Amino acid sequence: MAAPEMTALLKRGKRSVAQTVKNECIKHNDQQKLRDLLDYLLNPEKAIDEPETLDWLRWLIAGGNTYEEFSKTVRQYDNAVTCGLVWTTNFVAYRCRTCGVSPCMSLCADCFQAGNHEGHDFNMFRSQAGGACDCGEVSVMNPAGFCPRHGPDRQHTQPQPPGDLLAVAETMMPRIILRLIYHLRDNSKPEMTDTYLLAMQDAEQFLSFLHSLSDMGAAMRRVMAGALTDPDLYSHLINMHISVSVSHPCPPGRLCLESIHTAKLVLNLSHVGQSSIHSIEIQSSTICNVQVTMLMGNTKAIMLELQYPVLYQLTIDNSDEVDFFVIHSEAEASNSFYMKSKRDYEAAVDSLQYPRGFDELDDIPGLNQKLVHKTFLEELVFWTVKFEFPQKIVTLLLSLLPDLRYKEAFTRAFIQHYSRISRVLVKALDRQTVANRVVHISVQLFSTETLACQMVQEYNLLYVLIVSLKNMMEQILTDSTLQDLHQNFHQVVDCSHESMKDHCYWPIISDLINLLSHEDIAYKFLSDMKLVTMWLDFLSYFQGMNLNTRELHQHVEFEPDTYYAAFSAELEISASPMWSLISHLRRENSYYVTKNMIQACQESLQDWFDAISCKESTNPNPLQLTFHLPLHRYLATFMVQAVQYQHQDLLAVVPPERMLKTLLIHVLQIQVATAEIYSNMWVRNGLQIKGQPMTYVQCHFCYSMVDADIYLMQVCACRLDPDYFVQTVIDRFHISDWLSFNPEPGARIYKMEKEQELAIVEGVLQFFTMLLHIRTYLGMEDKELTRLEMATLLFVGDRQHSQLMDLMPEKSGMTGHGKDLFEPTLKDISNFKAPNFEPGGGLQQGTYVPKDELWETEFDPVHVLLRSVYKNDFQSAMDRYTEFLRRKGNFKGKGQPWPPFKAPGKIQECYRAMYRILHCKTMHSLIFTVLQKVLKDSSLPESFSFYAVHLLELAITVPNPDGSKRVKPSPARVPDKSYRDWFSGNDILENVKQTIREVEVSLSVEREGSPRLSLDTSFESFEEMFQLAPSALAGPSGPITAAHTGHIPSFHLSPLTTTSGNPQPSILTVLPSTSGTRPKFETRGMTTERQRTKIVAINESLMTILYKLHSKLSGKSNSYAPPSVSGNGSGMENGGNGEFYVKKVLDKLCQSSTDCARAVEDLYQANKPKEAGTSKKGKSMDTETRRKKARERQQKLMEEFASKQKAFMEQAMETEDSSTTGASKSPNSPDGSGHPESMESDETLYDCVICNQSTPSTAERTIGLVVFLQASSVLGHRTQTDTRKVLTLVDKTRQRIVNCSRVQTERLEKLFRNFEESSCQTSVNIGWDGGVLVQTCGHYLHLDCHTSYVSSLLGQGAHANLLVSKGEYSCPLCVQLSNSVIPIIPEESKYSITRPVSRDPRQMALDIASMMIKRPITPVIVRSPLVTKAMGSMMEDLTNATYGMYKTYTSSQTSESVLLFVCSVARTNLELELLQRKGDLSQPLPTSRKHCFLPLLHVLSMHSKILTTKPYTDLWSHITGVSCSENTTSVSLYQKEVPLLLKDPVSLLIQIILTLPATIERGHFDFVVQVVYNMVFIQSLCVMTCKFTEEEREAWKKGRHVAFNTLEEYTDLLAICQSVWSPLSVESSVQELCEPFLRMTALIKFHIFHDEFPKRGVLSDFQYLSSYLRLNVKRDATVIEPSKLTSAAQCVDWLVEEAHTLTRAWCTDLINFANKNPQDGRTLLTVNTQWFGPHLIQLPDQYYKIFQAYRKKQCPVCSNPPKDPCVCLVCGMFLCFRGACCKQQHSYECVQHSVECGAGTGIFLLINSSIIVVIRGPRAALWGSVYLDEYGEEDKDLKRGKPLYLSNDRYSLLEAQWISHSFDHACKRWIWHQDRL
Prior knowledge:
Blueprint: H1 3-11, H2 14-27, H3 32-41, H4 51-62, H5 67-75, E1 86-87, E2 92-96, H6 109-114, E3 122-126, E4 131-132, H7 154-157, H8 167-186, H9 196-202, H10 204-214, H11 218-229, H12 231-238, E5 245-250, E6 253-271, E7 277-283, E8 287-294, E9 300-318, E10 322-329, H13 335-351, H14 376-386, H15 391-399, H16 404-416, H17 418-427, H18 431-446, H19 449-459, H20 461-474, E11 477-479, E12 491-493, H21 498-501, H22 506-516, H23 519-527, H24 529-539, E13 548-549, H25 562-582, H26 591-611, E14 624-625, H27 630-644, H28 650-653, H29 657-678, H30 688-696, H31 706-719, H32 722-732, H33 736-739, H34 754-773, H35 782-796, H36 801-807, H37 822-829, E15 830-833, E16 847-850, H38 852-857, H39 861-866, H40 872-888, H41 921-936, H42 942-957, E17 973-975, H43 988-991, E18 996-1005, H44 1022-1025, H45 1030-1033, E19 1070-1071, E20 1082-1083, E21 1086-1087, E22 1090-1100, H46 1102-1114, H47 1123-1126, H48 1138-1152, H49 1154-1166, H50 1183-1217, E23 1246-1247, E24 1254-1255, E25 1263-1272, H51 1300-1314, H52 1317-1321, E26 1331-1342, H53 1343-1355, E27 1369-1370, ...
Parallel strand pairs: 17-18
Antiparallel strand pairs: 1-4, 2-3, 5-10, 6-9, 6-10, 7-9, 8-9, 11-12, 13-14, 15-16, 18-22, 19-22, 20-21, 23-24, 25-26, 25-29, 27-28, 30-31, 30-32, 32-33, 33-34, 34-37, 35-36
């Protein structure tokens, strides 16, 4: 189309053009106009993101409708079977394990909510790598969980779209995709490697347009999928503008060329000689012209002009011999761009190389890696890989997956590029993001079993994955240094490489695991020996990685962090696929593949042994350690599978003996090195070396690592010679020197400090105990194993449900510890402890505790020890076991019981051969030596005893699998360290009786100057080695049961008592040898030492050692009595201690053999004390008895000391809590200040918490009370009705709940509008919002001490949680936050300036008026600058404690406005205290709150007197009716003054009290209360009349038929009037209106005079309060019984005789105003004075309702969904928590809202985490959550995603802390929010 025509077309309007184009497409007419328009719009040389172009595309594809209308129409035909919604990182989705077939299944929120998952095991989660909704996918989830919109039946019920709806889209879609391809090509230049991100930003809007098309549903996706997968469209459009020159030989005959894409074709025919072309056939219906042109010379040219590029077939019939012909397509003017685009594409393909390993396997089908793209989809996948997986393209490609044809094509394209993906994973700029997106794609493709099996079959996908992995790791190989460096040609991965640290391999491994989860693929893997061998060769790269070498001389300079990468790699690369394979091998008929794997593992291991030059006789380098032996563990786990589940004999799968010995080398080295690490022998390698053994046994690794290693060693114990096995362990642990009886410790081959050596010995005993007890792989079923693991966790500590789920050992997700086993087991073995609160207000979550019977029957200390990541885990379990025994009364000893080792559990018969190690001479010699040393050396750890005794017990109780008894003569003398020669046979019952009389030891003497091998620090002598500093001998870790003392054991041991009673030589007594001195000899060039032997006398048997050990442990000589002597009634020992278990072994010996029983009895009789020796009992007391008595005396002294210390602390606590001071204060002074009537003659003393001096408060050294000031708006949130505000979940719901703040604000506005400002400010109080609350911890200090203390804090600089510059400090005693000090008035009672109480009421009124006029300030304050300054400072702190907006409600700053604030502070504190008392003064405060109102009142009183510009005498006269001055009359009216009946009576009372002296008498106070009450009563009557209807009011008027002189008679009208208001209801209402005043007045009296509130009894509120305030006492001293106060009028007592004149004046004043402004007058008179307590908003019972309602809700301020949405729990407002979008004046929205809603206190529920954040002034803290799951746990940040339910207890606690203003004390971890969060 020419340019003018195009211009004209564009001017016609988009709707018109789109309609025309649609009509052409529907009629299948010539579409030239659309093609030309698309050529213009989608010109690749234009910018891809032009808004005008995108708008044109929307109009065109919509066919004349708006794009939104078109989208809505297309969605009506969405008949997709599956949802397929694609999401990215942090998207909230759901996973239902009940419905899921695949563990990867996930659902979007809409599908989950629409489906039925009630009672299912589901959770909500935030996607880490992205995902897609599987709703409707039958291969992934159970159809019962589908939502109504998806499922296989959905397609049949939905109508098909009409043909004209998508006609334009079908034509446009290939061109739109082509435009994207050109954009990607144009931005793929090699020099633009780092600009991929910019290219994607340019295409952002274009891709969004494509996403909007995909979102229209299945109909549009089908169109897009068709365009992407059509190879003809791709070939045609890609080559449309490209010149093609192809030479073909043209033999005689017929030549056919198909599928040529061009618009103009020229055939140049070159020939030799003459030729003739008989015919040219072009098969195409779109050819316009065929022109044949004869060119000059011998060349013929035939030009074919086509109307537009098409696909056609060209046939040339050539009869002559033609050399060749060339097909040449003429290019258009823009040819240069398209040719350049093609070159860029080809260069990009060449630059994205595949791994080398595929070239060696190109003979295998599907492994040819040459890229030939045939569809748009294949090229788009290529660019996705090349551009490092842009998010928009990835989600676009995934969004089309519901189309099954597309899904298969996309999977093929993805596999086609898979080998190149592995290279991108390593080279990508953002590896983690690329890895997540690769997994995002692959998990959608490979989770479907049918498709996965098809791809594995067609493309050998398993080979692709393994070769890709292998190539990735081969790039980072390094030489292994294991064993001998010079003979090791093995290579391992470099764990320090970035590829390992960044887990670049994880996406490929994830895909492999996903594939292997399908059984058919797993069997295909295991059946292909070439594949298995390749896999094991690949795993050999990890065999021996991360090799640690022990540092001997200096600490490592930089601690490596490679072990994280190494353990992760073994778990993910090796263990996870291993468990996936093993999960399919539980059937017996699958043994053939298991056998293949075992054979391959043995071959791979042998290759590895050869590579590192390791043979069965090789001793490993003791300074090297690697925890990584994946080939060993593969062999172990597949052997377990063959024996346990496929019922094969162990002999059929076990390696030969020679290989077993070699296998033992490295797995045993791990156990040796672990013991060395915990004994601090590797301390110079840094902290990371301790992390490795901890990770080795951690729950995610233990089944794959430590348990597999133990199993291999158990197999070795079964098949190897038991003496060889035990001796090997002794040698490898290097404890031969410690076991030796050599009295002269000479040069040691492997040198250790004593503490280290003891820890290693304990490690050996612990190793043998574990080896014989651990049954994880010896035949345990899943149910039994689950119970054991769960019980082990509960023994260590009480656990939350989520902790148990996390800590249960797993086989990389393949354990089956699911609900089918987990929940029933948990219920069976534990009790649930519901969440509760700690004493300090802390929150505890629900936990599970083991049942008591579990401790008795199933506590397995060996398994606890195996699973102890931290060594104190075992100690914690033992402490809990000890507590259980003491609670049951089964253990009363002082120390800790021995671990209750159980007999080994049931194992498969083929493994019982490992018990042979219990019945070998070497083991018996080991036990003998350890117990003999324990008997002689009391400094040895107790663990030696219980391990050795238990091993001996096992040897006695476990039968010998090898029935043969090899017996030889018992040797008279045994060689040292040659344990095989010590006993005559393997029978333990014989060996326990055999006495080892002498040990022949070799004493070596070094030649002078001879070299000495030393692996550690060398010492000149044994003594020097132990003369190190204590820090060198002790370390932060070690054997958890060892009694480390740090002392050198004494070598002068006391002699043993033998059966004959004669002392024998000590253990180190050296006898002369008869062998003489051996000559020195040399061998192989090495000079040895001269040998001489000595004989060490032992004269002990295992039986005598046990017998004496029992005496030693019990502290009594000859304490053991055999069963034949003690009988069955014996056994009084404390169950669980050492003597109990030693007795148990001796008893078993007696029961097992009559010979043993006889020997024990002989031993008992020989050591039985003689009768004659009883008189010398004191002298013959043995050493152990004396030591025990000494210990008992020492223990008694320590207990006495502890008792005295405890008594002192209790006394100190009582002193502190006795009152606010805790010193010798007056008992009648809870506020810390005495009163003239109640104060004793002695001065009140106060304890200063800084200087600890007890002094009275004086003018020279004034005492201050520690207080904390804070602003509060709690009172403003009180409501008129007792209903909670409900959290709004739907925008349409609105609640109007009137609160106190709104009512009082409107009241002020009306007063200011109608009256003088000064009068208004003295008529009410403020402080409902932003009032200042004063709290105290009750501690005192001197003002000068406080000043010094704060100065010292300022000098220390910044403090973590204190704003010292604003006066904040921590109370020096209780550390509570404080920010001010109230001075205590010094001995004010000595300067009484009040008038005496007069009996004449008029005189009393005049006296009070006189005191008002003088407004006396305490003399001490006047003459004490210090007190005056302190008072002023306190007032300044009160002013600064709140925000300016709450201090005054007028623009002018007058003395009245300041006075209003001062009086309101008192009102605020009284109201808040009343609120905490819940309005009932007869009940004490719910918390032990200390009072500080009276000292505060003194401060306020002083400033009130200063601020009062004119006395209250006029007001006083107006109230009393008594004229107090000549210029005042009691009935005078005031212009623009607030009428008396509209004033707040409590406000008036507070003003009057603050004006009077602080030392007024009770009589004065009662008189003032009586006068104000009179006014309150009249005010109440006026309010009642406003509630009457006109008829009721007329009825009351008619009742006035008689005259009356007193107001009491006026109340008789109540009995006359018969109306809707009954007399009882009127009286009740009047009393209710009076009660708020009475409550506040009573509270004031309580604080001023310390009159305790009496018990209420049966009195009503009105009766109780009136009697407390003495309103029932008349002027004539008559007292009305409180129970007889039936009318409010009974408490009225007028001062004047003509009360009607006074009340008429009050009412006239009110009526005059009401006549002018009836509405305001009525509102001000009937203003509410009774309020219900404030509440936080009512929350729904389930959290998901809040989450779904607010997760995507738009912020009302910025109109965007907040990143961190939250809700204010006080008012329910929806806010942005951390968003800067809504900040005001540099304050974030929540900070500003906390000021406006709570005067600096805000309580916010974070929607995305369920956590509550509390803001207090400049601080913020995490409070916790009020939503708990079914197990009573929080789910912070919704990580577990379990359903959460409202905890009413927690919410009540939160509300209570809000009302009591205790957040500052309850929350411990505060941060400075700095006006942003």
